[in-house]
Amino acid sequence: MGLFSRTPSVQFSVANMNCGHCEAKITERVQSMPGVSRVKADSSSKKLEIWYADAAPTAAQVNEALADTDYRVQDC
After folding, report:
1. Coil, strand, or helix at residue 74?
2. How far is CA 55 from CA 5, 33, 68, 70, in A?
3. Helix (H) or strand (E) segment spanning residue 13
4. How far apart are CA 70 and CA 22, in angstroms?
5. Please, which residues have CB within 8 angstroms of residue 67's CB and are 6 or more apart in sequence?
6. What Gene3D superfamilies does the annotation carry (predicted)?
7. 14 contacts 73 by C-beta, under 8 angstroms
8. What share of the chain is helix, strand, coil (3-state, %, to 5)?
9. Which candidate, 3, 24, 49, 70, has a CA 20 to 30 Å from the CA of 14?
């Protein structure tokens, strides 16, 4: 069992995430959020998974981190 399999995570959907560039930009912004330990953005499923140390980030907090981009998350 790996480290991330024991770390809690939360998923969001990102409707306009379409390519690897989108994934990289979203990952960079979300990874910089306090308490986030890992991020996986997947443009094929349009899902964003965030592993966290303490409290789960909310959609509003993630959208704040993405404020100067064209991306917005929604609860799955």
Report:
1. strand
2. 17, 12, 24, 25
3. strand 9-13
4. 10
5. none
6. 3.30.70.100
7. yes
8. 30, 25, 45
9. 3
Look up residue 58 and give its two tokens: 């909310």
- Per CATH, the number for 3-75 is 3.30.70.100
Q: If you average pLDDT over residues 44-59, what whole number do you get?
A: 97
Q: What is the pLDDT of residue 11?
A: 98
Encoded tokens for 6: 């024991």
Q: Name residues whose C-beta falls within 8 Å of residue 3's C-beta, 6 or more positions apart in sequence.
A: none
71, exposed or middle or buried, with CB in 10 Å at 0-12, 13-18, 19+? Answer: buried
Tokens of 64: 């704040």
| pLDDT tens readout for residues 17-36 | 999 999 999 999 999 999 99
